[in-house]
Design a protein that fits this description.
By secondary structure, the protein is mainly alpha-helical. It is built from seven helices and no strands. Helices cover 68% and strands 0% of the residues.
Length: 175
């Protein structure tokens, strides 16, 4: 087989153009082209010279497919592991929201405010309201489900009970 440098000079520009058309990214096309020629160098004595351009193009195509598969997996992973949603606005008064949320019944409001605003345990809330600790736990869980629904509705534009006072000049910011 001919000298590697001669083969490189003969086919490098065509292989690069093919790689560039395949991936559409110049630096990546350069990397793929060099990988193809590195593979050629490793297998120089086992490749028929008559099939050489096709062999190089096949290596480029396979490297491009590998790149796009890896890219797809990375994109899928990035979408699945998005950072958590931002916390409520710093100026938002949680106690006022709990008291104003129309989806909550009075018992839910009381349990939520005593637990999350005043820091009371479920046993303390039960003693104060004269109900069992298990009922307090149930009220808290159900109230949190209702708040999640209200929060999701607000994020989708339905503001439900999250609307503080009348919004000045149509602004959509939460208070």
């Amino acid at each position: 087989m001919a000298d590697f440098e001669a083969i490189y000079r003969t086919h490098a520009s065509a292989v690069f153009r093919y790689a560039l058309r395949t991936v559409g990214n110049r630096p990546l096309a350069e990397d793929i082209t060099s990988e193809a020629f590195l593979e050629l160098y490793r297998n120089l004595h086992s490749i028929d010279e008559g099939r050489l351009p096709a062999w190089l193009f096949t290596v480029v195509k396979n490297r491009a497919v590998d790149h796009w598969r890896k890219h797809a997996v990375e994109q899928r992973y990035a979408q699945e592991t998005r950072p958590p949603e931002a916390a409520p606005a710093a100026g938002m008064d949680v106690e006022a929201w709990l008291l104003r949320e129309p989806a909550l019944k009075p018992i839910h409001r009381v349990c939520l405010v005593l637990h999350f605003v005043h820091g009371m345990t479920r046993a303390e809330i039960g003693q104060r309201l004269n109900i069992s600790e298990i009922r307090v736990k149930g009220h808290l869980q159900y109230a949190l489900q209702l708040l999640r629904k209200a929060w999701d509705s607000a994020k989708q534009g339905g503001l439900h009970g999250l609307e503080a006072e009348a919004r000045p000049s149509g602004a959509g910011a939460l208070k």
